[in-house]
Design a protein that fits this description.
The complex is a heterodimer of chains A (about 260) and B (about 290).
Chain A lengths: L4 E12 L2 E13 L4 E5 L6 H9 L6 E6 L2 E2 L7 E4 L11 H11 L4 H14 L15 H13 L5 E5 L7 H18 L2 E6 L2 H7 L2 E5 L6 E6 L14 H16 L5
Parallel strand pairs in A: 3-8, 3-9, 6-7, 7-8
Antiparallel strand pairs in A: 1-2, 1-4, 4-5, 9-10
Helix pairs in contact in A: 2-3, 2-4, 6-7
Chain B lengths: L10 H10 L3 H33 L9 H10 L1 H35 L1 H15 L7 H8 L3 H24 L4 H9 L4 H37 L6 H10 L3 H29 L15
Helix pairs in contact in B: 3-11, 4-5, 4-7, 4-9, 4-10, 6-7, 7-9, 9-10, 9-11, 10-11
The chains are: A alpha/beta (about 260), B mainly alpha (about 290).
Chain lengths: ~260, ~290
């Protein structure tokens, strides 16, 4: 069977007024179905670009992308996306924001309404379905956007620093929740982050990238047992792993 | 303690509850604190007006006493009413046509890439020109009838709507576009579900601008040559030095402008309760 995702020799050059910007250089990696990948790297290393290429929203200058064995030639459909900001529509209620995914895909609204309510329950937002985004805190809004990414049960979840704008306490909580959801649903996840501890906590494998042009420096297998808890973060092997990855990044001058 | 309504008591009890509601007093107080200072300022201005006229003995045709303006209002009520109706017709039709053209223009300019590249630069270039200078040309083409006045209003009204709506339609965040594309949205879905609602707040600020400009358009249109309307009446009051009537017309036009603006603002509040600048409900802390 084909791998869930497969990127080969991805290179990306943006043309700009100051000349061309080399964003990505010979990036190759893949993931098995149900695997949790985290990509860490300094700001501007092309992590977001890589995610957009994977989603088919951008076209790589060189290289090939395959999702479930099929070449990506446009926006891929069996995907859920979460961005750094919640990107909720302020004129829609919480429930209607989640249902956007269902409406655009022309799925059965009655059936998915129940799914949406179930997901809200799962992320601890039961009873909030009629609220508007501005009535919710940043952390709550991001949970809604995660529900929206999950409602159509996509095989692939692409997350671009989803908890980057959230305070540290809520962030730990969200990491725990995300792990729980992932253990329940077993989706392939590509999760971009700035935070090495977050990457180690969540990932099966951590991909470390260099500063521009973004190259894949090293891949770390995280063999901590699941489900990981907040205590896991206090374990020596957790901090060893974090230190390891940080050294790798520092060695390439890529730590902000 | 159970309230009258809870006990099933009839009407009067309910009304009493409304009047004695504990939250009513602070709210009335807040309204008072908001309205009182400008009201005092108005009273002070009128007193100053009387005082200045009393001391300087300025003749009536230069600056009348405020009460003479009020008298003019009642004495010429029929006249004012008749001409107000004409001007309101010009404003109403001009606004309707101008908003419709502005809205449709914006939609087609953003929808069609060809139109956008060919026409949009001209729109932005013309935006800063004084549109009113075309008014004499409209008289040559359409004569002294109501058509010309409506078109002058249309001319002034349509540009703000066009430009603000275009800006609104193009203000959708990249992330939002990426998101909806990842859902496999068609071009129409991107437009109807993301662009259009995003553009509404801008459209309404254009509408409010237009409401203010519509009155100017109607008056200037009438100044170009008319036999009815408040602009026409303004000129004839000026010709005969009927200054109190002149003031009455000015107040009336100011009221029309304000009411139009407030009506647009009310539509905005009703249609966009979620809009950032309008909301009052506080965020739920987490």
């Amino acid at each position: 069977m084909a791998r869930a995702i497969e990127l080969h020799d991805i290179g990306m050059v943006f043309a700009s007024r100051q000349g061309s910007v080399h964003a990505l250089d010979e990036v190759s990696f893949g993931a098995e179905a149900g695997e949790f990948l985290c990509i860490v790297g300094p700001s501007g290393c092309g992590k977001t670009t890589l995610l957009k290429i994977l989603a088919g929203l951008l076209f790589a200058s060189t290289g090939t992308v395959q999702v479930n064995g099929e070449s990506v030639r446009g926006p891929i459909s069996n995907v859920g996306m979460v961005f750094q900001s919640p990107v909720l529509m302020p004129w829609r209620t919480v429930l209607d924001n989640i249902m956007l995914q269902v409406e655009v895909r022309n799925l059965d609204r009655g059936k998915y309404r129940q799914v949406a309510l179930g997901l809200l329950q799962l992320v601890g937002l039961a009873g909030f379905e009629r609220k508007y985004p501005y009535q919710l805190s940043g952390g709550m809004q991001q949970r809604v956007s995660i529900c929206r990414a999950l409602i159509h049960d996509p095989a692939l979840l692409l997350m671009d620093e989803p908890f980057g704008a959230i305070d540290a306490l809520t962030r730990e909580q969200m990491n725990l929740e995300l792990q729980r959801i992932w253990l329940d649903h077993k989706k392939t996840v590509v999760f971009v982050t700035h935070s090495i501890p977050e990457a180690v906590f969540l990932a099966d494998r951590v991909l470390v990238m260099s500063a521009r042009p973004g190259r894949l420096l090293k891949v770390f297998d995280v063999e901590l047992p699941r489900p990981r808890t907040l205590e896991t973060m206090a374990e020596p092997r957790f901090s060893r792993m974090v230190t390891h990855i940080r050294r790798e990044m520092q060695a390439h001058g890529g730590l902000e | 303690m159970p309230t009258d309504a809870a006990l099933g008591l009839p009407g009067p009890g309910r009304r009493a509850r409304w009047l004695t509601s504990p939250s009513l007093r602070p709210r009335l107080l807040a309204v008072y604190h908001r309205l009182a200072p400008p009201a005092y300022a108005l009273v002070a201005l009128i007193l100053l007006w009387y005082l200045a006229l009393f001391i300087s003995r300025t003749p009536d045709f230069i600056l009348p006493y405020p009460d003479r303006i009020v008298v003019a209002f009642f004495k010429d009520a029929g006249l004012l009413y008749r001409h107000t109706i004409v001007t309101l017709q010009e404003i109403g039709l001009g606004l309707a046509i101008g908003i419709a053209i502005g809205l449709m223009g914006a939609l087609s300019l953003v929808w069609s890439r060809t139109l956008e590249t060919a026409v949009l630069p001209w729109v932005f270039l013309l935006e800063s020109t004084p549109k009113i200078v075309i008014a004499p040309l409209l008289v040559i083409w359409f004569g002294f009838g109501i058509t010309t006045k409506i078109l002058v209003v249309t001319l002034l009204v349509f540009f703000p709507v066009l430009v603000t709506t275009i800006a609104g339609l193009k203000s959708v965040e990249t992330d939002m576009l990426d998101l909806i594309q990842s859902m496999g949205a068609s071009r129409w879905q991107v437009f109807s579900k993301a662009r259009l609602p995003t553009a509404l707040p801008s459209f309404f600020s254009g509408l409010k601008l237009s409401a203010a400009l519509a009155t100017i358009g109607a008056v200037v249109g009438e100044w170009m040559g008319a036999d009815a309307g408040l602009g026409y009446l303004l000129l004839s009051a000026y010709d005969s030095f009927a200054t109190p009537l002149l003031f009455a017309i000015i107040v009336l036009l100011a009221m029309i402008g304000t009411l139009l603006y407030q009506a647009a603002a009310l539509c905005e509040r009703l249609m966009l309760p979620w809009h950032a600048s309008l909301r009052q409900e506080s965020t739920i802390a987490m």
